[in-house]
Amino acid sequence: MKTSDNRDQALQLANVSRRSFLKGIAASGALVLAVSWDPATAESEPRKYGADYMAHGWVDNPNIFIRVARDGQVTIINHRGEMGQGIRTSLVMVMADEMGADWQQVHVEQAIANEEKYGNQDTDGSRSMRHWFEPLRRAGAAARTMLEQAAANQWQVPVSECRTDVHAVVHTPSQRTLSFGSLAAAAAELPVPARQSLTLKTPDQWRYIMRTSNQPLAIDGMDINQGKALYAADMRVDNMLYAVIARPPSYGSRVKNVDASKALAIAGVVKVLELPSVTQPSGFEPLGGVAVLAEHTWAAIQGRNALRIEWDDSPAGDNAHYDSEAFRASLESKATQPGKPVRQVGDFSQAQRDSAQHLTATYYAPHLAQAPMEPMAALVSIQGDHAEVWSSVQNPQATRDGVAKRLGLKASNVTVNCALMGGAFGRKAKPDFVFEAADLSKAMGGRPVRVQWTREDDLHHSFYHTVALQHMEGTLDHNGQVSGWLHRILAPSISSQFAPDSGHLSDRELTQGIRNMPFDIPAIQQETGEALGHVRIGWFRSVYNIPHAFAIQSFVAELANAAGQDHKAFLLELLGPDRQIDPRTQGENWNYSEDPSRYPIDIKRYKNVIERVTQEADWGKTMPPNRGLGLAVHHSFVSYCAIVMDVEVTPTGDVIVHQADIAFDCGPQINPDRVRAQMEGACVMGIGIALMTEITAKNGRVQQDNFHQYLIPRINQVPRTIRVHAVNSDLDVPLGGAGEPGLPPVAPALCNAIFAASGKRIRSLPVADQLKS
Amino acid sequence: MISVTINGQPQELEVSPETPILWVLRDFLALTGTRFGCGMGLCGACTVHLDGTAIRSCVTPISVAAGKNITSIESIENDSVGQRVQQAWMDEAVAQCGYCQGGQIMSAVSLLTTTPQPTDEQIDNAMSGNLCRCGTYPRIRKAIHRAAGTESLSTHTNGSQVQANDTLFREVKV
Ligand code: FES
Ligand code: FES
Known about the structure:
The complex is a heterodimer.
Chain A: E1 2-3, H1 7-12, H2 16-26, H3 32-35, H4 50-53, H5 62-65, E2 66-68, E3 74-78, H6 87-99, E4 106-110, H7 115-118, H8 128-155, E5 162-165, E6 168-171, E7 176-179, H9 180-188, H10 221-225, E8 241-246, E9 254-259, H11 261-264, E10 269-275, E11 289-294, H12 297-306, E12 308-312, H13 324-335, E13 340-345, H14 348-354, E14 357-365, E15 377-383, E16 386-391, H15 396-407, E17 414-418, H16 432-443, E18 449-452, H17 455-460, E19 468-476, E20 482-490, H18 507-510, E21 523-529, H19 545-563, H20 567-575, E22 580-581, E23 601-602, H21 603-616, E24 627-636, E25 639-649, E26 655-665, H22 672-691, E27 697-698, E28 701-702, E29 721-726, H23 746-758
Parallel strand pairs in A: 1-2, 3-4, 8-18, 16-17, 20-21, 26-29
Antiparallel strand pairs in A: 2-3, 5-6, 6-7, 8-11, 9-12, 10-11, 13-21, 14-19, 15-16, 15-18, 19-20, 22-23, 24-25, 25-26, 27-28
Helix pairs in contact in A: 6-8, 8-9, 15-16, 19-23, 22-23
Chain B: E1 2-6, E2 9-13, H1 21-28, E3 47-50, E4 53-56, E5 69-71, H2 80-91, H3 101-114, H4 120-127, H5 137-148, E6 160-162
Parallel strand pairs in B: 1-5
Antiparallel strand pairs in B: 1-2, 3-4, 3-5
The structure holds FE2/S2 (inorganic) cluster (2 copies).
């Protein structure tokens, strides 16, 4: 903590143990990009977990995060990316509550990219609260301790007689008070108390944390509602040019010829520039193409429409012929062949020989585009050996380092300002759009350039969610119990974006629901088949959990049906006895980077969410005709989520989702309302994935241009009732993720409900008009 | 030269007449609360009022607005319905990323101005042109009912039920 007019001093107060921590991790600092995708990084070092595992770890020094002004204004730095999850409110609330600040007097400042100072800023993997609750709680507690010490010094009383009330310190015996503002200067002179000496508030002393009433107002709420909130596309500086880019239609193709004469004739168009094309694998590199720079966005868009470009598809190879339907057919034929083993328990062939029933099913889930409501935008300006970036990115540090590298600047000479993200869902974890702006600014001699993506650009040039074909086989013994389970997945890997394509899912991708599948089955065989990427493949909210949960949770319902058993009872039976599984015993060594002893796979928690959601949804009740309930459960990002969907299938084959019940256990819910909002949002997005959302390709071109073809749910297509039931774990359960785990169970729950309502089994997403025949 | 009144201010604009209102607001007047989401009239992020009627500014040329009044999200608080809607949006904590919410609010104000007590079906009709990728629809519906004072008409039941006692927590192990 520091007074706002005394920045330098704060640096001198840097916490010593934090420094030595930094030294330890500095050696791997250059691996920032790799760390975010390669599970094999730093195998030789002792294993680190949680926030320690992340590049630049964590910081809990109050001087870095908290400033108190003489007028009492408390400024708290938020260093994580805000994309709608509410982290600017939630993390700041943690610090404010621990220090005793009054929410009305708290201001938030968004940190620039600087992990050396703030610790890890890569906002993905549902990690922000999970990794930062404890450090930032300590930062708040340290600030409070310093304020109390300053008051004790002034009153010349023992600090033990002082306590913090709202925004003030009270001398308990005399009831004298000193406001935070009046203590700010003196407190800033004090050393930061040792971590071990801190007294954290007890939960009954919290005013905001974990409260379902007295929720602090959202930091950006009114700005958003009044149109004042600022996103990347709202950033402007003097002399700025607006750029729109025509990118190669297939991944890897390049410009052969461009005729820019018509574009240059458009009023407002300033320049047309050809950009270098990519070689694969291209990582976060921009795709190249032709940029139109103009005095305003509309001129740039018009200019791009007027370009005449001839593309050379030969460098794109097979990508130029990518046909998602034909690709699916090729995966289907490969899926019947044995794959590469992932995990084997018992003997599946034996189980098959001994079985009373043997079921086979193939599930398909298509590519998706994240399609955040705000299309990508980035502004870059270069002056001398310094560059300044304004953008909306999930990974500010990778953005800073990448811009520095391509401009030949020191990373410390690149300032990345982080605006609000108008949604991200994984797309803005890839800073290709910022690199485009950097390249264009450089080409213009440093003149500020803001690149604006259109919706067509977004849908045509995403880092797409994988496409997945899954071959499932299951055997039932004579008692109707599952005796064997075979799961073979063919899906392009995200690693194909960063390394020569092996055609198989990486270990980390397999841990998202496959390796860590909890079922207690005597014979389990899990395999991957070959599937090469033909478009850029990237993270999409929940990532591989989406297809995995769809296949696994649908197939369990199919087996239950074949066994003539109630789906819920069958699912509970399949989970087996209450136990905590060490994921490493299943060859699962990632565990979302969390310590497997702190975060085992907990069967009891699985069962709790199933029991709760079925109870709330009144599972087993008699349903009206054409109406059914469907259930699914999934564990991801070290949280547990079960969903029951109430669905009607009309005689004409329309699907009406009447109600969704969601039971969620992410351990303690620090900001319960935002957790609930994430569940509601995931439910809506998941209904889209189940019913309508799909990216397809033909002749190497993505076929969806805009929201008339890329369908996402509208208000009339989602249930009026989405109920979120918080399953509160004991507070000694460590925190789980909240942004992503709500999504994977939605589609299988919905498809299971369709089956219950209509007797029709959906094995291919989205449902679209499959029920219409 | 095109004469338009924008948020109560008369403006003489030197822009080509086919320029969509969206880009006039954003790039020429720095009124950035009106958002670009699709450019094809499909998402509603760019919704403004033209003489009180909600329109999609991304597909409406500025020439159409000549001699008329444009109201954007930045000044809707001057409208009593607008203010009520903004407050209801706060009370229901509607926004996630917020990018669509200016457009949502402009559509909701337009709805409530013509239909002060909308049914759920009327809400569906009026709001289905506004996409929200974050999925805030249940709260949008609730907020509209709240602004209309018709919470009881809502078929939407409360989203969340938290079992734990709000004041009795065990200590978190750090
Ligand atoms: S930007 Fe105008 S409707 Fe989407
Ligand atoms: S709040 Fe993010 S798009 Fe609606």
